[in-house]
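Changelog entry: the ISY1 factor record was regenerated in this release. Current contents:
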Amino acid sequence: AGLGEFRIRDLNDEINKLLREKGHWEFRIKELGGPDYARIGPKMLDHEGKEVPGNRGYKYFGAAKDLPGVRELFEKEPLPPPRKTRAELMKAIDAEYYGYRDEDDGILEPLEQEHEKKVIAEAVEKWKMEREARLARGEEEEEEEVNIYAVNDDDSDEEGGKEKEGEEGQQKFIAHVPVPSQQEIEEALVRRKKMELLQKYASETLMAQSEEAKTLLGL
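Regenerated structure tokens:
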């Protein structure tokens, strides 16, 4: 340590130069068929030479490890802060985190109402322009009002509607579309299952022949 900083650095550089030259000779001996001294040779102890993290290959020996700027490189980095567990993270999650209290400040709701009015006005204006364009082209506009809640007995009979009456005092339910029977539903399920099995196990050739036979039979 009494040699001085510059002399210590020069000696440390000379040692690393000799170590690199030694490594080159060991590699050359191995190329010529000799023993692999890098693998079977004596190993250097940690206290004899120490590498700086991130600077692979260059070692510091003796007093060189205490030189200014080098000592700090060997100091251990502080441990990272411990990671919070899932339970600790969940403690800070409440209704506000999921946005349930966004309207409490009284700012968001008026903005949404204003935007809603603007969108509705634009939609109405667009509809009026399209309506005027249709009238200009001479297209007649059908404005017949249809009561979708009105029930016509004749229409219900033609469409196969079925009226289900319960006990006295209960509400009546009317089906406005044909309701399949239990047998029809079972037959449809069987046909669907057959098609799934054919698609899963039948070859493409067999499927093509089947479709051709159905076409010839008019099915």
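The longest strand covers residues 50-51.
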